[in-house]
């Protein structure tokens, strides 16, 4: 029988996971932050990166909000993996989010593991928060970002943009600080997490909790990390980021160093790693555990699960945006089954009911939820066009020649 | 922070998992079985159950094939859990598979853990196979069933029926022993496992392998079982058996013993088990590990992944059924995303190309893949009607009055 080898060997991993340190550019707020759960953080650290130059009138700032496993390194190599920034195909000089024109800000979310206050931060008493870190919500993440925006002396953001959990933050920004958001681009997201998504997150949390190296969250004290549990969680989540079509196109049933027929080679085809999609997923899991912290994964997935913007407004999503002057561009992807188009359409409908200025675009692609991170020309044209139009309304200086792009090709919600 | 407790406590579980013993009704074949991988089992045990009475002419036998985690206890309480048979709503006196009329047979699959030869069986040298058990395929499972059918003195089965992996066996039966299958009902299945399904299975295997109680498959020797890994695998798989609609309808975002808003109750809503869907999944996982063996889960999921009936026939599925006289009824469910209707339609198209007698029915339901196990009146009417019509063609004695049902309401493939 094929005995699967655990793909995630804790021995080869840095004890305690990716370093929690002050090496990340950050700002420290000594007056702390009051959380939605009622707890108060005595001190708040927000790690962030910026790209481009802030205009004299401070009107050209774009806040990028990252997703569950993202970070502030949007348009530059990741300090731990050396890989290009997670949105380096969208953010940069001459790109749809043009850093020759806009001042782009991205902060590691509250509860994250790349320098912002989170489970790996130090408490006032000098110990590590670990599992004692209070639960945070999307609203708390946005409040922490608002402190950063204050610190940067920016009253109003020209735009807030993000995909997946980043899109939840965009919606929360527009609902909580409408006067501070001129334009909002929630991409591949939802106004509330679905039962199916909560279910997948719960399996991820169970996979982490089932790893004996988790030590009820105190793995740092034991000099280990729950690499196997976190790796399994990532493998499963990664399937939900793709589509059946994309998986079939990328891998199909292709074998890797194994005969095509199990009958051939005395069953060699029945042993070990055989389908390409299997080794691909194992790689996804093992590379992930090198850069992400398990307690942050638990904290941030919980924040996604709690997110329900309608619940916070008497069950009516429209009232979350009542009287808003923000210009919205809602984007979804046809093959995204984690955040299906229907959920984006529900956002657009609520914005219509709130008499908001909204365009809705469903991008036709077979790449699934992952599409928001990939080179999707239609999405890039949509973002560039929407920002270009909004910039005119905002009275920003026009785009440098050659950057102009066609406007969003919207469908009626 | 909410620290998830592992839902699966090995301490409360039987060491080595559900008992592997001879208590199950079985037949032993001393001449063994040659497997597709090239290995040969010196001895073959097939555990099975029968319902109803075999006619004098032995023409009224129906073979039921079970799915990944099913077993031979189709229409009677499960000996370990005491729960009703897994298809007791479909198989029984006066039910669509009428045991007053048909002789129903179901065997535990080769590689399973309910009495048939599998990883928990004893080798000739007296030791347990464990992870040394050779890899098996759907074809091997069908060959083992054929030995049972021979033993029962049945030349031709009136019908072979099964859902999911059971449907794979139905297709393999029709392709390998066409003269022995008068009617075939493959339900919610596919002629080859998709890349997405292989991916989900691989995550399940990794979750099991990641459990230190797995001991590379030798957990029985250590008197333990990989309960946490197997539980996580089951939780994830269970999500794929349902649909987003079904999860939303059954659970939505309902909370369990927690305030609706995380802001209320000093964040009590942010601690512990909060969404109903979470505790439901934990229950699914913990009850599963009490009855199923991890090595069997690895063996049988591999068999599903290898299944590719077209590959075994020069890439042309139609040639797998060339010249068949078997009557087919292919059934799918509209909300099944694990075995989508498109895969059943591909089977029906291949059967059409093979000039076979085939009807295809897509049942409209929001219950997902699970629907094949549930009370789906349309499916039950379809099965009853198809069997009734086939029985006339087979020259079986007519159904007792009151059992007749409307025929299948087919759609053109």
UniProtKB/TrEMBL annotation, chains A, B:
Which residues of this UniProt protein bind substrate? 234, 370
* Gene Ontology molecular-function annotations: homoserine O-acetyltransferase activity
Gene Ontology BP annotations: homoserine metabolic process; methionine biosynthetic process
Q: Name one Pfam family in it.
A: Abhydrolase_1
Keywords for this entry?
Answer: Acyltransferase, Amino-acid biosynthesis, Cytoplasm, Methionine biosynthesis, Transferase
Where are the catalytic residues? 164 (nucleophile), 336, 369
- What pathway, per the record? Amino-acid biosynthesis; L-methionine biosynthesis via de novo pathway; O-acetyl-L-homoserine from L-homoserine: step 1/1
Q: What does this protein do?
A: Transfers an acetyl group from acetyl-CoA to L-homoserine, forming acetyl-L-homoserine.
Q: How does it assemble?
A: Homodimer.
Q: Give the UniProt family note.
A: Belongs to the AB hydrolase superfamily. MetX family.
Designated name of the protein? Homoserine O-acetyltransferase
In which organism is this protein found?
A: Endobacter medicaginis
């Amino acid at each position: 029988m094929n005995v699967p080898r655990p793909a995630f060997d804790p021995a080869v991993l840095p004890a305690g996971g990716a370093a929690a340190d002050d090496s990340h550019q950050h700002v420290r707020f000594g007056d702390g932050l009051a959380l939605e759960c009622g707890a108060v953080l005595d001190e708040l650290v927000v790690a962030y990166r910026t790209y481009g130059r802030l205009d004299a009138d401070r009107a050209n700032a774009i806040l990028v909000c990252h997703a569950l496993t993202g970070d502030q390194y949007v348009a530059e190599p990741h300090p731990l993996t050396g890989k290009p920034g997670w949105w380096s195909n969208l953010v940069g000089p001459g790109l749809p989010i043009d850093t020759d024109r806009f001042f782009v800000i991205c902060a590691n979310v509250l509860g994250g593991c790349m320098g912002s206050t989170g489970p790996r931060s130090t408490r006032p008493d000098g110990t590590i928060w670990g599992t004692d870190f209070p639960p945070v919500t999307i609203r708390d993440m946005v409040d922490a970002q608002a402190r950063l925006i204050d610190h940067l002396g920016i009253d109003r953001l020209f735009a807030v943009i993000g995909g997946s959990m980043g899109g939840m933050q965009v919606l929360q920004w527009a609902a909580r600080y409408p006067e501070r958001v001129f334009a909002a681009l929630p991409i591949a997201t939802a106004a509330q997490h679905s039962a199916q998504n909560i279910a997948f997150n719960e399996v991820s949390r169970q996979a982490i909790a089932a790893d004996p190296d988790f030590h009820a969250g105190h793995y740092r004290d034991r000099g280990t990390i729950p690499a196997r549990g976190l790796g399994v969680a990532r493998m499963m989540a990664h399937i939900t980021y793709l589509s059946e079509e994309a998986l079939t196109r990328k891998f199909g049933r292709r074998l890797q160093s194994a005969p095509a027929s199990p009958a051939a080679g005395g069953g060699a085809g029945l042993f070990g790693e055989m389908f390409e999609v299997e080794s691909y997923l194992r790689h996804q899991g093992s590379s992930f555990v090198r850069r992400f912290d398990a307690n942050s994964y638990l904290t941030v997935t919980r924040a996604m699960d709690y997110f329900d913007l309608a619940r916070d407004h008497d069950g009516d999503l429209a009232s979350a945006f009542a009287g808003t002057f923000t210009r919205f561009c809602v984007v979804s992807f046809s093959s995204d089954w984690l955040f299906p188009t229907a959920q984006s359409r529900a956002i657009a409908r609520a914005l219509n009911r709130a008499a908001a200025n909204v365009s809705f675009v469903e991008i036709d692609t077979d790449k699934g939820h992952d599409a928001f991170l990939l080179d999707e020309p239609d999405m890039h044209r949509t973002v560039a066009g929407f920002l270009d139009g909004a910039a005119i309304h905002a009275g920003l200086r026009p785009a440098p020649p050659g950057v102009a792009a066609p406007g969003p090709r919207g469908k009626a919600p």
